[in-house]
Amino acid sequence: MLFNSAEFLLIFLPVVVALFAVVRRLAPAPVLVVLLLLASLIFYGVWDWRFLPVLVLSIAGNWLIAGRIATAPPAQRRGWLIAGIGLNLAALGWFKYALFVAGVLRDLTPLDPALGAIVLPIGISFYTFQQIAYLVDVGRDPATLRDPLRYGLFVSFFPQLIAGPIVHHREVMPQLAGLGRRPLLPDLAVGLAIFTVGLVKKLWLADSFARIATPLFAAAADGEPLGLIPAWAAATAYGLQIYFDFSAYSDMAIGLARMFGVLLPINFASPYKATSVVDFWRRWHITLSRFLRDYLYIPLGGGRVPPWRRRVNVLLTMLLGGIWHGAGWTFALWGALHGVMIVIAQWWQARPGHRPLPDVPARLLTLTLVLAAWVPFRAADLSTTLAIWGSMAGLDGSGLTWPAPAPFPVLAAYARLLGIAPALPAVLAVLALGLTIVLAAPNTQTLFRDWTPGLTSQGYESGIASRRVAWRPSAGQAALVGLALGLCLLKLNDVSEFIYFQF
Predict the structure, then answer these.
(1) Is residue 140 part of a domain?
(2) Which of 366, 375, 409, 495 has the fewest Cβ atoms within 10 Å of its own Cβ atom?
């Protein structure tokens, strides 16, 4: 079930909110936990009921293993922790990487594994990492809060189950113990407003940029040279698509959770305003960056090792972060590329007498590098990646002839009346508008800064800037939210999945 689908917006969400509002007046917090747990399992099962047992077994298995870790003698605790992590990674590896590994073996060896079709359970990467973090924390502190119902809801809570944020038990489980204690109407108002902002981003922005990126990447995959301008348009359009798509999901997850009185961590903090690639990763998918830091980079030695080891740790962490996103060489390349850029940035900043670039050039350089790096993330394969990068370097001309159907027919028709190439002006105008919104408009955290839109993570950006524009619970702004929702309902026939659903 998608957040931007009619069945979610018009049936599931209103029913669950109504039940929550009634039950909270009649029953204590544990009953509300059961209600939201059942709702979350129904939400997951609607997508494909066959994978609901995978989620339930994962929750039950990790809960039992956590119990053994907590009660085992210190000498055995590490063994149970390794076993628990191994089982989680084995399940993730089978569903997500088995076909890729089989293909590599088929290409490089005489082996020909016949695995058949393996369907990736939606959200498995997110709830697997979440539970690995929980097991590690129980291993570090056996007195970690352990309540089976709250643990089940902590893992399966539908606002963040499918694509994050990757929440920490210390952030959410204490809140679940106090469900129903916060004032209902303010949380509903704030949550619905934040959710609506995300819905607008998804339906009216992310999906619009997909109309530019998709045919251009498809043309490149078919072997058609793009040319300089269309290639950069493809990279920029996809950069804007994934920006608004993931920003939308992050807003919608935070808004939905807030409707039930739960604050989730901020996961997206204007990453295209970053002044370096290091800063980008403090703003983009914050909870994944936090997980990789706390449960991979620091255990590898972090910054406590010699400089060369620290650089190796960064490269390995980012490579594994790339592979986490998908089973393919393009994702490995994307992760390795970011690792190299971070190492270069850290080396540059550590030079004696280093002077940072002024803010505007630093942002433009970082944005350019990040947009170019999105190419392997989106491209069908490595050959398509290299072809688009070659076009971006000008190896096959400027590309004034558009190599794909015009994505915005009305604008293209107007351009034709002016006697200019029909697709190019429309595309460049839309891309310019998108970049202007990204770089100049206030983000969700800033708009809702007076209402604590989400939890902050130590060492990462909150994204909150000082601006006069702010959301207020007034009749005028309520009407604006209603209008935005109405406009979004008009787009429900064009439902598309969120990009991070495939991870």
Answers:
(1) yes
(2) 409
**Overall average pLDDT of the 189-202 stretch:** 95
Whole-model pTM: value is 0.92
* DSSP helix/strand/coil, 226: coil
Packing angle between helix 207-221 and helix 228-259, nearest 10 degrees? Answer: 140
Distance CA 241, CA 374 (A): 11
| Residues contacting 184, CB < 8 A, separation 6+ | 21, 24, 261
Closest CA to 171 of 454, 464, 460: 454
Tokens, residue 221: 């995959």
Under 8 Å between Cβ of 423 and 412: yes
273, two tokens? 């305003």
pLDDT of residue 422: 53
d(Cα 208, Cα 219) in Å, to the nearest integer? Answer: 18
User: Which residue type occupies 428?
Assistant: L
Q: Domain residues for 71?
A: 6-183
Confirm whether 456 is domain-assigned: no
Q: Is pLDDT of 25 > 50?
A: yes
Q: Which whole-number Å values give the CA distances from 46 to 2, 121, 156, 308, in the listed order?
A: 10, 12, 14, 49
Q: Is 142 inside any structural domain?
A: yes
Count of H-run helices and E-run strands, the chain: 22, 0
What are phi and psi for residue 277, nearest 5 degrees? -65, -35
User: Would the pLDDT of 418 be above 50?
Assistant: no
Task: Work out the pLDDT band at 338, boundaries 50, 70, 90.
Answer: very high
482 or 408, which is more confident? 482
DSSP state, residue 351: S
**Residue type (1 letter), 313:** N
426 assigned to some structural domain: no
Q: Is residue 286's pLDDT more than 70?
A: yes
Please, what is the end-to-end C-alpha distance for the chain in angstroms? Answer: 16
Query: What six digits make up the tokens of 42?
Result: 């129904």
Query: Is it true that the peptide bond before 403 is cis, omega within 30 degrees of 0?
Result: no
Tally of domains in the chain: 1
Give me the active site residues, please: 325
Residue 400 predicted with pLDDT over 90: no
Helices (H), 356-491: 359-378, 382-392, 409-417, 423-440, 444-447, 475-489
pLDDT band of residue 48 (cuts 50, 70, 90) is: confident
Residues 6+ apart with CB under 8 A from 354: 348
How far apart (Å, rounded) are the C-alpha atoms in residues 391 and 225?
7
Output the 3-class SS for 81-118: HHHHHHHHHHHHHHHHHHHHHHHHHHHHCCCCCCCCCC
User: Is the dihedral angle over the CA atoms 274, 275, 281, 286 positive or is it negative?
Assistant: negative
